[in-house]
Design goal:
By secondary structure, the chain is an alpha/beta fold. It folds into four domains: 218 residues, 3-Layer(aba) Sandwich (Rossmann fold); 182 residues, 3-Layer(aba) Sandwich (Rossmann fold); 79 residues, Arc Repressor Mutant, subunit A, CATH 1.10.10; 177 residues, no CATH class. 42% of the residues lie in helices and 17% in strands. The protein is built from 29 helices and 24 strands. The longest helix has 18 residues. The radius of gyration is 27 Å and the shape is globular. 47% of the residues are buried.
């Protein structure tokens, strides 16, 4: 007799599901399943289930939800929404066997599914529908009159990888789609959120049910996680002065690749170098080593720019058990695609966020009795008289160490749930009009922007301004009865398949100097002419920014300290920067860190601490770097960007740079910079149109081009500027 028989939650499940569990040889239900089953089964409340990867979250949702379907007096529907087609395919494979025994149909629905299968679902609309937000969007747009019939018997929305939606355009789109379906069927549908990584469960609850987050029931797994083994290795790049002429190919990637080849061969692993170009570099180096050693290739690439066929080859290599395989990847393999057991996770350079590192580590240590293993590689430049502040403080090593420290403390970034995503509002306005064949401005506002709706917080006046602006862009027109319809451009856009995605494909800015393209660079902060950037190992001065063409025009900037900004990377939270500062101020490493850092990485930390102490940076916040002044804030990127914007409003060229803000001197003195900070501290916060007047690169989301300037400023600030934290820091400076 299994332990499951003695479980009160197990006894609530349908007898056929109990038999399936017995046949599968389960010893017991997981703690999250025990807690979730009685909450979900009545289909009366919203629930979030948060647990580690492979801790049974999917079963925690589907076992009670399928029991509900079996006990219902009429045919009902479960709508499972996933961020990835590959995850839908995985879940179909997991559910098909069980649901076949239960005689419950399972319907995968995405771009690769045949139209005949979709037609059969639309005829029956019962069982389990596995769908992406984009396909759900297409359903509402193209079958608007049938929405109430198709979804009328929906018993649950199940949202997988909830953390992947929070704070994104797709997340706001998903909120809107679920809300619109509930309007069409005139009732609330219980929502179940599944996630492995949530920094603040209550913020996640507010996301799952806007306006009623306090009613969402939270289930957090308390089961102990696998043992965690960590090793951080340091590598030092030889010093190459910028003006010495020819570029020198760094040797460090080759050394790291050689170490990876030695320690990873013979097992399955995931290697995260963060950038796509680095994925290609390390895959090439490791493939060449396999050829040289005349051994079968074990290293495969995986990133968003590769074709789905190449990505599928990598996923298949990881799943099969005959030959070991390691994927060199970006965050495309962070989410819960079934890739089998992974022995270790490799992080080259600091991860984008602590939450990201936690999610990646969830892939390792999934076999019973095996530890989760993290291998971290830090790369620093050898010190010379022209070393930047970032190099002198060894900030890459300090940041990775700080993130691991926070991970071990159990902290990770809370969800970014307060972004307005007015870009997605533009899409949803066009989509609602497609669904109903037209809509009044009042209907659109009450559906999308009123109290407890996905875009609440936008006033009626602002919404009317948006609608007028969409009319000027030929996205909307109004007929003689005041009904809003698609305009010339709007109709063309909505009728193209690309409309259904709320997000734009990742684009990088081209870097052009004297007519020659130097390469491309991902950019995640404000750009302004006069700002300096680091690219291809050299410092460049921005002359102009062509936003529509995604092009930055630069000239070579001779001399000066290299800037910290080099594009790309995740946005760093203030808590991470504060932990970095704490590590620099300690006299010795905490024991748990001392055991995981190798001698070179320890030397980097010691060098960073010595520089920090010698320069008395614990008390100093203004560093004169010659042509630039560094304001050392130790704040997160959103606060630093707000400080830069406050200074730019007062005529300075300023940009966020790692743990602070770099300010070009020009004709300004340190005193004038401090005076500007004092003014900012005592003045009222400036209007956003004034604060962001000359800022470039504000159009980050797909439909930002269709927003009037003041709403573009408002949506940008909601995502990227922490003005309150910036002003608090400025006031603290005045206090000193």
């Amino acid at each position: 007799m299994t332990a499951s028989v003695l479980s009160s939650s197990f006894a609530l499940l349908d007898e056929r599901i109990q038999r399936f569990i017995w046949a599968e040889g389960w010893e017991s239900l997981r703690d999250a399943q025990e807690a979730a089953i009685p909450l979900i089964l009545p289909a009366e409340r919203d629930v979030i289930v948060a647990a580690a990867t492979a801790a049974g979250k999917t079963e925690a949702a589907f076992l009670p939800a399928l029991t509900y379907l079996l006990q219902a007096e009429e045919h009902r529907l479960i709508v499972y929404i996933s961020p990835l087609k590959a995850l839908i395919n995985d879940q179909f494979g997991r559910l098909e066997q069980l649901c076949e025994q239960l005689e419950i149909p399972v319907w995968p629905w995405h771009g690769d599914i045949s139209s005949s299968s979709k037609t059969r679902f639309l005829t029956k609309h019962q069982g389990v529908l596995l769908i992406t937000p984009e396909s759900l969007e297409a359903l509402l747009c193209n079958r608007g009159t049938a929405v109430s019939a198709v979804f009328g018997q929906t018993a649950f929305f199940v949202v997988d990888e909830l953390h992947a939606f929070i704070g994104s355009e797709r997340g706001k789109q998903l909120q809107s789609l679920m809300h619109r379906i509930e309007i069409a069927i005139n009732r609330r549908v219980p929502r179940i959120g599944l996630s492995a990584t949530l920094g603040d469960m209550r913020l996640a609850a507010d996301f799952l049910r806007p306006g009623f987050g306090e009613r969402v029931v939270l289930v957090e797994s308390k089961s102990s996680s696998a043992e965690l083994k960590i090793l951080v290795k340091g590598y030092e790049e030889p010093s190459v002065l910028e003006d010495e002429g020819e570029d020198i190919e760094p040797t460090t990637p080759g050394l790291i690749a050689a170490h990876l080849f030695k320690v990873l061969r013979g097992s399955n692993n995931l290697v995260f170098p963060n950038l796509r170009r680095e994925v290609e570099r390390y895959t090439h180096l490791l493939n060449e080593m396999c050829l040289q050693q005349r051994v079968p290739n074990e290293f495969w690439p995986h990133h968003g720019s590769l074709s789905k066929e190449i990505r599928a080859e990598t996923e298949a290599a990881l799943k099969q058990k005959e030959q070991p395989a390691s994927a060199i990847c970006t965050n495309t393999l962070e989410l819960g695609i079934d890739i089998g057991a992974v022995k270790s996770v490799v992080q080259i350079g600091s991860p984008p966020q602590v939450a990201s590192l936690r999610q990646r580590l969830g892939r390792s240590g999934r076999r019973k009795g095996e530890p989760a293993i993290l291998r971290g590689y830090c790369i620093e430049s050898a010190l010379d008289p022209r070393s930047s502040l970032s190099s002198a403080l060894r900030l890459d090593t300090v940041q990775m160490t700080a993130m691991i420290s926070l991970l071990l403390q159990g902290w990770y970034e809370p969800p970014l749930s307060k972004g307005m995503h007015l870009s997605t509002l533009v899409q949803q306005v066009l989509s609602v009009i497609a669904q109903y064949g037209g809509a009044t401005i009042g209907q659109l506002y009450s559906t999308l922007c009123a109290q407890d709706t996905p875009f609440q917080g936008l006033s009626k006046e602002e919404f009317a301004q948006l609608v007028r602006h969409l009319g000027s862009k030929e996205l909307l027109i109004q007929d003689s009865t005041s009904l809003l319809l698609h305009g010339r451009l709007g109709e063309k856009i909505v009728n193209h398949y690309s409309f259904y995605a709320a997000f734009a494909t990742d684009e990088e800015f081209r870097i052009v100097s004297l007519g020659q393209t130097l390469g491309t660079l991902p950019v995640s902060q404000i750009l302004t002419p006069g700002q300096r950037i680091l690219f291809a190992g050299k410092t460049w001065l921005i002359e102009d920014v062509d936003e529509p063409q995604k092009t930055i025009f630069v000239v070579h900037a001779h001399g000066g300290v290299p800037p910290s900004f080099s594009g790309g990377g995740g946005r760093i939270h203030t808590r991470v920067r504060q932990e970095m500062r704490r590590l620099l101020e300690l006299s010795e490493l905490p024991p748990f860190l001392d055991e995981i850092v190798d001698e070179i990485a320890k030397r980097f930390l010691a060098e960073g601490r010595k520089y920090y102490a010698d320069r008395e940076l614990s008390a100093e916040y203004v560093i004169d770097q010659g042509r630039e002044i560094m304001l050392l804030t130790w704040l997160g990127d959103s606060a630093n960007e707000a400080i830069a914007a406050l200074l730019a409003r007062r005529g300075f060229i300023a940009n966020p740079a790692g743990p602070g803000v770099e300010v070009r001197k020009g004709e300004h003195t340190v005193g004038k910079v401090l005076e500007a900070l004092r003014d900012a501290a005592v003045d009222k916060p400036p209007p956003l149109d004034m604060l962001l007047k000359d800022a470039k690169n504000l159009q980050r989301e797909k439909w930002d081009w269709a927003l009037p300037n003041d709403l573009l400023h408002k949506t940008y600030a909601s995502h990227y500027l922490n003005i309150e934290e910036a002003l608090e820091w400025a006031k603290s400076v005045v206090g000193r």
